[in-house]
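anyone seen this seq b4? input:
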Amino acid sequence: MRLIALLILVLFVVAGVVVGALNADPVSYDLGFFQLTMPKGAGLLVTLVIGWLLGGLTAWLGVSLRHRRVLRRERRSHGKTPARA
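predicted toks r here
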């Protein structure tokens, strides 16, 4: 299973390198407070990484908050924490 995951990862890395090489012409990004010039491939990679990080953070927060809620309910049901009036 790890070999398949490694092969898929290598496939995506190679595809990313090809896309980055084919989109090497510079593009200017105006973000309001500053201007940035970078190759199209690098811009695509940066937005992909930012989206991946934000999606992972959102998923982690959702799981973490749900886990805390379940723990709180279990503690209350077992009488370890006094219930608030």
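The CA atoms of residues 37 and 67 lie 43 Å apart. The chain has two helices and two strands. kinda curious what u guys think
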